[in-house]
Design brief:
Blueprint: E1 3-5, E2 40-41, E3 44-52, E4 57-64, E5 70-75, E6 81-88, H1 97-105, H2 117-121, E7 129-130, E8 132-134, E9 138-145, H3 148-163, H4 169-175, E10 178-181, E11 191-194, H5 196-204, H6 208-220, H7 242-252, E12 258-264, H8 268-279, E13 301-308, E14 319-329, H9 333-347, H10 353-359, E15 366-367, E16 372-374, E17 379-389, H11 394-411, H12 415-430, H13 436-448, H14 454-458, H15 461-473, H16 476-486, E18 491-499, H17 502-519, H18 523-541, E19 567-571, E20 574-580, E21 586-594, H19 600-603, H20 606-613, H21 623-633, E22 637-646, E23 649-664, H22 668-681, H23 687-707, H24 709-718, H25 723-732, H26 734-744, H27 750-762, E24 769-775, H28 780-792, E25 814-818, E26 824-831, H29 839-862, E27 867-873, E28 878-886, H30 890-905, H31 910-924, H32 935-940, H33 944-956, H34 959-970, E29 976-982, H35 986-989, E30 995-996, H36 1000-1008
Length: about 1000
């Protein structure tokens, strides 16, 4: 299972309860009988029923009478139905027991006694989502699917997993932690720590942002469950025993401690009848408690911590500092709503006072990871902080924060900013997204587990109405600033400094803990470790009978795809694609301006150019003023680079700049006017704002590497194989990360300004543009008039640089990036075929089979990496292998190599072939948001006819096809490229066949030497 440690979202969401007569009757669209509070149904008692018109849903809260289990059903006309079961799981230590339990519950159960049924169900289902999450005080298991049979199958597996798991010691050792020889079958190799969660948390704590967030969180709530890590600290995880795990499950995983969530258009009766069948033999039990209420302090506190020095950033500007303030109880939904809005007004966007005072002044590179309003705890908190700060500015940051709070208390907020926030919420309600049910689930879960009424959390308009009434009386936000921020003794100043020896100290401490345990082993213990290692290895190799697991059939995949009706017109010599459909009163705009051939040194500036359009302002308006307009009249505007491979030739690539936006239909003219203003009038000469943008971008890119290292590795590996991946690497890969950090240390930006102006003279011209509009029928005319005005205002001429024609020649490299991580990320890539080539379908099925039946077992189960597998990208034509948060390096590369030999000798059953295809069609047939309809055609030129042919090819792939594809495309071992990211490795560094890429400060030292 792909578990995640949840960190809270801090986006604005205004919610408040609707006041209804308790006997008001509602008829839920897909509920067979009209219900009122007090009605009984399949062992449940109805507690509340409310219609929430702004979200087009009816919410029904119920309680299971025998056990007290709570159930929230959201009845809505949406085919992407969601199920989730969650448990209140606060902790009293940092051994990670709920996190490891989340992993092991999905490793087999009474009805499904096979190893890892969760992963196996990924290939026997058409689920649009399957996962499990561990938060600071709850654990939840959700899935989503559009197929009713699939829904019942997955619900049965999930229910049996959480209430009747096997929780075998072997699974605990594999998923949690164990002592084992490096090579389990060779007792001469050293004994070491292993385990999926153990390595996952080593990876998590390598992320300085994650580390800062959890350390601030722990120090903010001393004496409560929140002072511990629910995910587990690597130093503490080995203190957890198998008995501890069993006891935690026994006390926490029972219906009396559970919350059930169902969403969509499947009938409530069928949900309740199925759940009652599983819950009927349970009785009500005592719910475990933990202290979640912190005692308010009588005076502010200051705490310090350390993290690794980042080699990609200036060493003198790596300090993090924040002020955190204890706020309201999370069960008070209106106060939570109000504080979230206060956080938005203080912090969000160029016009916010904190952005102006802290970011625009370059006191830091960007806000700290804990910045914002956090309602994930029983008592909420609001934090304001910076990263990328000089030590000498620590006091200044604190003074500046408090000064801004004083100013806002005195002067209040501009009414337009408040109106803009309300406008964003209005738009947010109207977006028809494919994952709406899952979004709702995440928005209520934390509050629900902390005594908030979940239906109160859904009702938005009542909160807005109350807000407007209270704003009229005055002193609304000012009083809250005074109460929670300026006159609050429960204030934490949290400072984290980089330590050049941090990683060394961490490794030494782990070595000492390991040595202490190994030295304490008796001969019997050592013999037991050797035997258990062999037993686990044998268990991982065991071929199981999976017939107990439910599955869909190939016939459940429709042979015909759902087509999207599109229309095409021309406007000012610009092709326009129209998708006319129900959009709830929103217009979605997308444009792509194709680029001429640019030299690489200019191309590197394209991402910065795109960000500049929405960051620098114009000569007549500041970005703060424009940002207010964007929030008041649109749902957001974005500019970005785009790279797409031809569907018929992987050596042909289109590079472009994409403009994306959406707005309420009443604001169509305003949206196009703002876009035109940004294109024509952006002030690239504002070097102060440009410097702020570069520093923030550099910091953000660095932060992204540790969380997505496998993607960076895979992209770099592919960059020497196809022109599209070469350009993707330049624009968004490690090369761009390093480039942006070099720019961040540049004082004179005159050359950068000239590069941006050169790009501006080349791009976004009429002759290079194509546009896609998605809107309702009644908004077509308005869009036509506004769009014609927008396009006609663009220049005709294209000032192109000298062409740089170059024939792309694949190169095959091995590259290593030493970085201060406790785990590794690897990527290996090989060339495949274009989208329209019939072998593409064979390679796609091949990648699924290799991941499921070989790579998952070898990389995750045996070697303890958090993830790994094979992937075939049909649009860019690359076959790749990857590993994520991997304790190994060269051994994993050997696994990639061995996988090819394995697959050419393996005979797959018809069921295994079907499962591979089901896993692929999960993504192909997943519902898409209305804004994404027709985008494959618009961006990549892939028509519905091409997609239908690909569909038929996928369904027709045979065992012989898979073997033929492996032999034809994967046996060319010398025609692959490899990239590794991670801790320094002498074997790699001393091997002359590897290119060693030192980035940032390490590169400067190397160059100096």
């Amino acid at each position: 299972m792909l578990s995640h440690l949840l960190r809270p979202s801090r986006r604005v969401a205004l919610r408040q309860p609707v006041q209804l007569n308790s006997r008001t009757r509602f008829f839920a669209t897909h509920t067979q009988n009209s219900l009122v509070p007090g009605d009984r149904l399949h062992g449940y008692r109805v507690q509340q029923i409310r219609h929430v018109p702004e979200l087009e849903l009816t919410a029904i809260a119920l309680e299971h009478e025998a056990t007290g289990a709570q159930h929230l059903h959201i009845d809505r006309e949406d085919s992407n139905n969601v199920f989730a079961v969650g448990f209140h799981t606060p902790v009293t230590d940092s051994t990670g027991v709920p996190h490891i339990l989340e992993h092991t519950t999905l490793c087999g159960s009474e009805r499904y006694p096979v190893r890892d049924p969760f992963f196996k169900m990924l290939n026997r289902s058409l689920a649009t989502f399957m996962n499990a999450f561990t938060a600071s005080d709850y654990t939840i298991y959700p899935f989503a699917t559009t197929n009713p049979v699939d829904y019942a199958n997955l619900r049965n597996v999930y229910m049996d997993a959480v209430f009747h798991p096997r929780l075998e010691k072997l699974d605990f050792r594999q998923e949690g932690w164990r002592l084992e020889h490096e090579v389990p079958t060779d007792t001469s190799t050293p004994i070491t720590f292993k385990g999926v969660v153990y390595n996952e948390m080593k990876g998590q704590t390598s992320d300085a942002n994650y580390l800062y967030y959890i350390r601030a969180h722990e120090n903010m709530f001393p004496g409560t469950t929140y002072e511990h890590s629910s995910g587990g600290e690597p130093a503490c995880i080995p203190d957890l025993t198998h008995e501890d795990l069993l006891n935690f499950h026994k006390t926490h995983y029972n219906p009396s401690n559970a919350r059930f969530f169902t969403y969509g258009n499947f009938p409530l009766e069928s949900h309740l009848a199925a759940l009652q069948e599983r819950l009927a033999h349970f009785a009500r039990t005592e719910v475990p408690t933990a202290n979640k209420k912190v005692i308010p302090w009588t005076e502010p506190r200051i705490k310090y911590s350390t993290c690794a020095l980042d080699p990609l950033s200036p060493p003198e500007k790596q300090t993090r500092v924040s002020l955190s303030f204890l706020a309201n109880p999370s069960e008070d939904t209106f106060e939570t709503f109000s504080m979230r809005l206060l956080s938005y007004l203080l912090l969000d966007g160029h016009a916010s006072p904190m952005y102006k005072a802290l970011i625009d002044t370059n006191l830091g590179s960007e806000f700290s990871a804990n910045t914002g309003y956090d309602s994930s705890t029983n008592t909420t908190c609001l934090a304001i902080g910076l990263q990328g700060v000089k030590d000498s500015d620590i006091d200044l940051v604190q003074e500046r924060i408090l000064s801004v709070l004083e100013e806002v208390k005195r002067d209040g907020f501009d009414k337009r900013r408040i109106e803009a926030a309300i406008h964003q919420m209005e738009l947010g309600q109207k977006h028809k997204t494919a994952d709406f049910g899952l979004t709702l689930m995440h928005s209520i879960t934390s509050g629900w587990f902390n005594n908030a009424n979940p239906i109160d959390l859904l009702e938005i308009n009542k909160n807005i109405d109350r807000l407007k009434r209270e704003l009229e009386t005055g002193n609304f936000f000012e009083s809250r600033i005074d109460k929670y921020l300026l006159n609050n003794q429960h204030k934490l100043v949290f400072i984290m400094n980089p330590d050049p020896e941090y990683s060394t100290k961490l490794s030494r401490a782990e070595e000492e803990r390991l040595a202490n345990r190994v030295n304490a082993l008796t001969d019997a213990d050592r013999k037991n470790i050797a035997e258990e290692g062999k037993v686990l290895a044998a268990n991982q190799e065991k071929v199981e009978d999976l017939s107990c697991l439910p599955t869909l059939k190939l016939d459940d995949i429709s042979p015909k795809m759902k087509r999207t009706e599109l229309d095409y017109t021309g406007m000012c010599n610009t092709p326009v694609q129209w998708r006319t459909t129900a959009t709830n009163g929103i217009t979605y705009f997308r444009a792509i301006s194709s680029l001429p051939s640019l030299p690489d040194d200019l191309k590197m500036y394209l991402p910065l150019f795109c960000d500049s359009l929405l960051s620098l302002g114009t000569r007549t308006q500041s970005m703060a003023e424009i940002d207010d307009e964007i929030r008041l009249y649109t749902g957001g505007l974005r500019a970005s680079t785009t790279v797409s491979t031809s569907h018929s030739d992987i050596d042909h690539v289109e590079e472009g700049i994409a403009l994306v936006g959406n707005c309420l239909d009443r604001n169509i003219d305003r949206m196009y006017d703002i876009l035109a203003k940004l294109i024509h009038d952006t002030n690239f000469d504002d070097t102060e704002k440009l410097k702020t943008l570069i520093i923030g971008n550099a910091s953000g890119l660095v932060d992204s590497v540790v969380g997505s290292g496998h993607i960076f590795a895979r992209t770099f590996a592919g960059s020497s194989l196809t022109p599209a991946m070469f350009n993707s690497e330049l624009l968004s890969g490690l090369t761009q990360v390093n480039f942006m950090n070099q720019l961040a240390s540049t004082e004179d930006l005159s050359n950068v300004v000239e590069k941006l102006k050169t790009i501006a003279s080349i791009v976004l011209k009429q002759s290079t543009l194509r546009v896609a509009i998605t809107c309702g029928e009644d908004a077509v005319s308005s869009n036509e008039h506004a769009l014609e005005r927008f396009i006609s205002g663009l220049p005709h001429e294209v000032h192109s640089p000298e062409p740089h024609p170059a024939v792309f020649v694949p190169r095959y490299n091995k590259t290593f990036f030493p970085l201060p991580f406790s785990v590794n990320f690897s990527g290996k890539a090989l060339r495949g075929v274009p989208y329209t080539h019939p072998d593409g379908a064979k390679l796609q099925v091949l990648s699924s089979l290799m991941t499921t039946h070989y790579l998952h077992r070898e990389i995750r189960e045996k070697n303890g990496a958090y993830g790994g597998g094979a992937r075939y990208a049909g649009l860019n034509g690359l076959f790749s292998f990857y590993s994520y948060r991997d304790p190994r390096t060269l051994e994993t590369l050997k696994t990639f190599e061995d996988a090819v030999g394995w697959v050419t000798k393996r005979d797959f059953t018809n069921q295994e072939m079907t499962e591979a295809k089901l896993s692929i069609f999960q993504g192909i047939d997943a519902p898409v948001s209305v804004s994404e309809e027709g985008m494959l055609q618009f961006v990549n030129g892939v028509s519905d006819d091409m997609r239908q042919r690909r569909r038929e090819q996928l369904l027709a792939v045979t065992q012989a096809d898979v073997r033929e594809a492996a032999e034809k495309y994967l046996m060319k071992e010398t025609e692959s490229s490899i990239a590794l990211l991670g801790e320094s490795n002498d074997k790699v560094i001393n091997d002359g066949s590897w290119n060693i890429k030192q980035f940032g400060q390490a590169a400067q030292v190397t160059n100096a030497e």
